[in-house]
From TrEMBL:
One Pfam assignment: CsbD
CsbD-like domain: residues covered: 4-55
Gene source species: Cupriavidus necator (strain ATCC 17699 / DSM 428 / KCTC 22496 / NCIMB 10442 / H16 / Stanier 337) (Ralstonia eutropha)
Family: Belongs to the UPF0337 (CsbD) family.
SUPFAM superfamilies in the record: Hypothetical protein YjbJ
Name of the protein described by the UniProt record: CsbD family protein
């Protein structure tokens, strides 16, 4: 699934994001509001990941997410 599809299904995606990255708060998810770069930044912040690791996790999640 590509990011355009995720943005279009943001209400559904929020739950799946919360399952994958449980350290993200509801406020984080509300502020992200479907923006990929915002999600990457929040993952880095909450998990202490490098930008590269956050991006890799997001790519894996995008590829593996089933609706």
């Amino acid at each position: 699934m590509n990011w355009d599809q995720i943005e279009g299904k943001w209400e559904q995606a929020k739950g799946k994001i919360k399952e994958k990255w449980g350290k993200l708060t509801d406020d984080d998810i509300a502020q992200i509001n479907g923006k990929r770069d915002q999600l990457a930044g929040r993952i880095q912040e909450r998990y202490g990941y490098t930008k590269e690791r956050a991006e890799e996790e997001m790519k894996d999640w995008e590829r593996d997410t089933r609706w």
